[in-house]
């Protein structure tokens, strides 16, 4: 893998297969990667933390964590990494690739599942396959963290209400003594079926080479 | 006069529809209908003279004794006739829905046109001249604005902005293409036309182009009328509808441009260039005017908290002013109205009271639906009235060209657009977009405006326009529904947004912005985020009064949801069972993390007899009654005498209290009879959370008699203090020997809120003092308790009115 970072040009084909990006997109992303890492092979949390545009993002922590989460590498590993190479970076990015217009229904379903899984993993911090109430509360609190003086209580009650909604849609009948442990992935899919995740959770990756533009930005 | 009306009845054209008959009888007396419009006053008076002479002359004899019963119809003529038309329109709308299955097959717009045709036919049949009902002034200044404002105010901003590029391309390039394609080819056909060339060959290129620009614009009124009924998915709806709204600027510019050209008769390159510039001025100027008025409206609504009654008026007036101001400069009034409505809405909604919001909603819907009905009826009447010049070649060619141009335009543009879209438009989508391009009354009114001097062919044009409108509205409008079914085009999801979806929409926004930032690519999420931030930081502070300016969207959504549920609850009569879609027995307790050692639920059956329960009910009921009577007062200026109005908290509170009372009663029932699963409602629990007071209930209430926590649904927010999540009610305990004590107990629970926001109406955000009820307070508490208990009552009993009472 070390070789892939030293001479990435030769591995583009390989990466194209793995991530589904086009050569140009990979080239662009690689430039960005190098820019972020300061021409190092690996990128660390601090590197991402330094991106100025991210400063205002309420869920910055989760986003950065997602990059270092092994679960998002299309492999079955768990745990987190300290730093990631370009390939891993690309794999995380590939979750945000738009669906091909030629994709069949099944492919769309797969893509949707992958995207949802990514989201789910962001919430499920302890990787037990369940988003517990506490985890969900954290999500909502983080989400509202930028909006100033929001009482934690409000954030909590929102999370509680949301949790209650999940519970009542998925397990409509519970005895008073039953305990709904948390959102499983199936339930997660269920509650978000109204959002067209396969198209919504996509960003446009640049095709053309914008190296000059970037350099201009860098030097300024 | 009676003989005249009878003859209509005998003609029996409308035997099927009784409603029409009734109205026709009414119309009989006022056949010379002319709807008020400043320039029509003279014909009205002229008519009235003859009318008086023939019909009412005998009644107006002077020189008699004091007239006990006098008849002076002419004084009320104009308003009377307007009312008659509106009444006719409303009754028609009503009537269609009474006839089963009819509205499923035929769109309302078609039926209304038919009614218009019939009414026009009757008017004509009586030998009267058909009034020019679809007068351009009336149409553009009275009938159109409500529909457009309704569309703009309730414009789904998010899908609209996400698809703005596509919409703009369809609206601008598509309309231009349509106009020039239809106009150009029509000119060609006119020139090579064979036998009827004598008439057609006189039509010049400019006239053809003008005609093309009139006929090519998709009509928002027609689109709305049809698309509302087919419930198509949001994307297609916003694409077609957005196009119909935004193409107004193109139409306005083209119209004025070609009108100018045909007046002068010469076209220079410079003028063409100025025309292009004029397009930007018209479109952007319209938007600018709209935005300005929108901001003004938002700013005004900041200060209306003391005169809530006129709040809705500001929304209407500022929008109308925006429309008129834009029209002054020949800017696009429709775009101004759309921009105004869309800009002001988020701020106005945050400022005004909930009731004003409801008022705005209903007024807009009411006006727009009456306008729409009238427009279609008038279209029918005008068809009968208008001087027609039916030219087979011209009409057929126009209809065919319109269809062809639309299809080519949509397919061609989608091909380009799809290269840039993340969500591609499928062939089915393209078909619906092309097929949904209905033409409507705007085209007719524009054609009506044409100057006869410059356009000797006006009649041919009008006839062709009407034919195209009829063709699109009838053929396409009627077949689009079965086609949508046939093609299995994705329908709109009726389900309302859930809180989870809202959370994840927001989460996704931030996530995508973050990923774009990491990619170093400033895409549209990035800019949207910037805009949102700017909005939050500066704009909201200026335009929204008080705390709500800082409220993040998610919390606003949450409050709105709570509100909705509260209202639902109130409307459902205060029952404990929510009319929720999902009958669920899940409660807060089920999701709450709790220790494994939970107390064994022992169901102590309370020794509460039936008549005790009855007694409680009676106390509650009598109190409800009394409060209602005491509080009933009417004030014209301040509609609502209660600060409840201002906050959302009132409904939560009511809900909460009602819930508690109901719960107690239900609980008793439950324990008295079969141990059924405890009644609950997730929303109630949430309501309790919503008030943000729950944590305070804990310690003293637990001691006080286990009331709050004994409630099986009682939901302790602090995981640390979940020591007593499941204590059962022990109504038989000495603490609650009778109903009064029982009331007392949850009265105490409520009282804290009472002190803060209940009848005292203090701002809810004040920190609470520890409450120590002393003995001498007991009586006062009791009294207040009575009031507080009675509080939810009125709202429960009288649905809407309840909210008007404190």
UniProtKB/TrEMBL annotation, chain A:
Annotated Gene Ontology cellular component terms: cytoplasm; lamellipodium; nucleus; ruffle membrane
InterPro entries: CHP3 (IPR052490), EF-hand-dom_pair (IPR011992), EF_Hand_1_Ca_BS (IPR018247), EF_hand_dom (IPR002048)
SMART domains: EFh
Residues in EF-hand domain copies: 111-146
Keywords: Calcium, Cell membrane, Cell projection, Cytoplasm, Differentiation, Lipoprotein, Membrane, Metal-binding, Myristate, Nucleus, Protein kinase inhibitor
Pfam family name, one: EF-hand_6
Keyword Oxidoreductase found: no
GO molecular function annotations of the record: calcium ion binding; protein kinase inhibitor activity
Top-rank lineage group of the source organism: Eukaryota
PANTHER family recorded: CALCINEURIN B HOMOLOGOUS PROTEIN 3
Protein name as annotated: Calcineurin B homologous protein 3
Organism from which the protein derives: Haplochromis burtoni
Automatic annotation (TrEMBL), chain B:
Membrane topology: Multi-pass membrane protein
Superkingdom, taxonomy of origin: Eukaryota
Ranges of compositional bias, category Acidic residues: 796-806
Domain Cation/H+ exchanger transmembrane intervals: 87-485
Any one Gene Ontology BP term: sodium ion import across plasma membrane
Protein localization: Basolateral cell membrane
Biased composition (Basic and acidic residues): 766-784
GO cellular component: basolateral plasma membrane
Region described as Disordered: spans on this chain: 587-607, 747-806
Residue intervals of the Sodium/hydrogen exchanger regulatory region domain: 581-684
Coiled coil: 610-637
A Pfam cross-reference name: Na_H_Exchanger
Catalytic activity: Na(+)(in) + H(+)(out) = Na(+)(out) + H(+)(in); Li(+)(out) + H(+)(in) = Li(+)(in) + H(+)(out); Li(+)(in) + Na(+)(out) = Li(+)(out) + Na(+)(in)
TM region(s), chain numbering: 16-36, 105-126, 138-155, 167-187, 199-218, 238-258, 270-300, 320-343, 364-386, 392-418, 430-448, 460-484
Swiss-Prot/TrEMBL keywords: Antiport, Calmodulin-binding, Cell membrane, Coiled coil, Glycoprotein, Ion transport, Lipoprotein, Membrane, Palmitate, Phosphoprotein, Sodium, Sodium transport, Transmembrane, Transmembrane helix, Transport, Ubl conjugation
Gene3D superfamilies registered for this protein in UniProt: 6.10.140.1330, 6.10.250.1040, 6.10.250.2020
Molecular function in Gene Ontology: calmodulin binding; potassium:proton antiporter activity; sodium:proton antiporter activity
Similarity-based family: Belongs to the monovalent cation:proton antiporter 1 (CPA1) transporter (TC 2.A.36) family.
Protein name: Sodium/hydrogen exchanger
Biological source species: Astatotilapia calliptera (Eastern happy)
């Amino acid at each position: 893998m070390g070789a892939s970072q030293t001479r990435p040009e030769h591995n583009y084909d390989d990466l194209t297969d793995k991530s589904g990006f086009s050569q140009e997109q990979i080239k662009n992303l690689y430039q960005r990667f190098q820019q972020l890492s300061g021409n190092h092979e690996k990128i660390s949390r601090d590197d991402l933390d330094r991106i100025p545009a991210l400063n205002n993002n309420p869920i910055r922590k989760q986003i950065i964590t997602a990059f270092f989460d092994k679960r998002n590498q299309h492999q079955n590993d768990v745990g987190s990494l300290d730093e990631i190479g370009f390939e891993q970076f690309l794999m995380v990015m590939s979750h945000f690739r738009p669906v091909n217009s030629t994709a069949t229904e099944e492919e769309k379903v797969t893509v949707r599942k992958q995207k949802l899984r990514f989201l789910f993993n962001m919430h499920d911090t302890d990787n037990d396959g369940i988003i517990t109430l506490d985890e969900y509360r954290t999500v909502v609190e983080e989400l509202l963290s930028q909006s100033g003086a929001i009482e934690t209580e409000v954030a909590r009650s929102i999370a509680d209400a949301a949790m209650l909604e999940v519970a009542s849609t998925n397990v409509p009948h519970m005895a008073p003594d039953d305990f709904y442990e948390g959102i499983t992935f199936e339930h997660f899919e269920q509650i978000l079926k109204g959002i067209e995740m396969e198209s919504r959770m996509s960003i446009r990756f640049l095709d053309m080479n914008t190296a000059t533009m970037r350099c201009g930005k860098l030097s300024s | 006069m009676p003989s005249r009306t009878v003859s209509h009845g005998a003609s029996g054209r409308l035997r099927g529809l009784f409603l029409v008959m009734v109205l026709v009888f009414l119309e009989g007396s006022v056949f010379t209908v002319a709807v008020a419009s400043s320039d029509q006053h003279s014909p009205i008076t002229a008519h009235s003279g003859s009318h008086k002479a023939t019909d009412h002359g005998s009644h107006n004899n002077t020189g008699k004794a004091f007239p006990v019963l006098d008849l002076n119809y002419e004084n009320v003529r104009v308003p009377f006739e307007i009312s008659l038309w509106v009444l006719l329109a409303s009754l028609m709308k009503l009537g269609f829905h009474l006839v089963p299955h009819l509205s499923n097959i035929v769109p309302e717009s078609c039926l209304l046109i038919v009614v218009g045709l019939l009414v026009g036919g009757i008017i004509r049949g009586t030998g009267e001249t058909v009034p020019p009902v679809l007068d351009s002034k009336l149409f553009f200044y009275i009938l159109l604005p409500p529909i457009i404002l309704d569309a703009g105010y309730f414009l789904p901003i998010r899908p609209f902005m996400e698809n703005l590029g596509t919409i703009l391309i369809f609206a601008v390039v598509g309309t231009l293409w349509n106009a020039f394609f239809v106009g150009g080819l029509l000119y060609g056909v006119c020139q090579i036309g064979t036998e009827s060339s004598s008439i057609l060959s006189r039509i010049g290129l400019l006239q053809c182009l003008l005609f093309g620009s009139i006929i090519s614009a998709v009509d928002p009124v027609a689109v709305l009328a049809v698309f509302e009924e087919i419930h198509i998915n949001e994307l297609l709806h916003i694409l077609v509808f957005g196009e119909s709204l935004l193409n107004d600027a193109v139409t306005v510019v083209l119209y004025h441009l070609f009108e100018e050209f045909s007046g002068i008769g010469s076209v220079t390159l410079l003028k063409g260039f100025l025309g292009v510039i004029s397009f930007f001025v018209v479109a952007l100027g319209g938007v600018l005017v709209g935005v300005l008025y929108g901001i003004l409206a938002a700013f005004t609504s900041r200060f209306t908290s003391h005169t809530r009654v006129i709040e809705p008026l500001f929304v209407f007036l500022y929008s109308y002013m925006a429309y008129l101001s834009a029209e002054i400069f020949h800017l696009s009034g429709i775009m101004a109205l759309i921009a105004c409505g869309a800009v002001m809405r988020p701020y106005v909604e945050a400022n005004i009271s909930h009731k004003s919001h409801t008022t705005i909603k209903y007024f807009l819907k009411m006006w727009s639906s009456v306008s729409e009905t009238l427009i279609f009826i008038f279209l029918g009447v005008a068809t009968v009235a208008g001087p027609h010049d039916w030219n087979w070649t011209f009409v057929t060619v126009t209809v065919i060209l319109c269809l062809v141009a639309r299809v080519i335009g949509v397919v061609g543009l989608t091909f380009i657009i799809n290269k840039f879209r993340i969500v591609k438009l499928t062939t089915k989508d393209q078909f619906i977009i092309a097929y949904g391009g209905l033409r409507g009354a705007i085209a007719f009114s524009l054609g009506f405006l044409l100057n006869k001097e410059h356009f000797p062919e006006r009649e041919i044009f009008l006839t062709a326009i009407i034919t195209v409108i009829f063709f699109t509205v009838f053929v396409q409008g009627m077949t689009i529904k079965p086609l949508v079914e046939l093609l299995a085009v994705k329908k709109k999801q009726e389900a309302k947004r859930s809180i989870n979806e809202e959370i994840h929409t927001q989460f996704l926004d931030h996530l995508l912005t973050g990923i774009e930032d990491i990619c170093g690519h400033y895409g549209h999420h990035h800019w949207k985020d910037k805009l949102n931030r700017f909005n939050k930081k500066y704009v909201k502070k200026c335009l929204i009064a008080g705390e709500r300016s800082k409220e993040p969207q998610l919390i606003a959504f949450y409050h709105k949801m709570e509100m909705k549920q509260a209202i639902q609850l109130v409307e459902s009569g205060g029952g404990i069972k929510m009319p929720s879609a999902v009958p669920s027995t899940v409660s807060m307790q089920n999701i709450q993390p709790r220790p494994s050692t939970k107390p064994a639920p022992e169901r102590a059956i309370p020794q509460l007899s039936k008549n005790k329960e009855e007694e409680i009910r009676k106390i509650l009921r009598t109190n409800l009654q009394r409060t209602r009577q005491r509080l009933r007062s009417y004030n014209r200026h301040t509609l609502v005498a209660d600060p409840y109005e201002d906050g959302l908290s009132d409904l939560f509170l009511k809900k909460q209290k009602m819930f508690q009372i109901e719960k107690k009663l239900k609980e008793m029932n439950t324990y008295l009879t079969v141990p059924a699963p405890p009644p609950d409602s997730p929303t109630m629990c949430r309501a309790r959370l919503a008030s943000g007071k729950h944590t305070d209930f804990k310690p003293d209430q637990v001691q006080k008699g286990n009331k709050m926590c004994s409630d099986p649904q009682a939901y302790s927010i602090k995981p640390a203090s979940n020591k007593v999540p499941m204590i059962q009610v022990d109504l038989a305990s000495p603490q609650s020997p009778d109903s009064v004590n029982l009331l007392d107990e949850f009265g105490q629970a409520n009282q804290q809120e009472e002190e803060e926001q209940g009848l005292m109406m203090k701002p809810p955000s004040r920190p609470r003092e520890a409450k120590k009820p002393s003995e001498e307070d007991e009586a006062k508490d009791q009294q207040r308790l009575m009031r507080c208990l009675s509080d939810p009552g009125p709202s429960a009993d009288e649905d809407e009115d309840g909210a008007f009472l404190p």
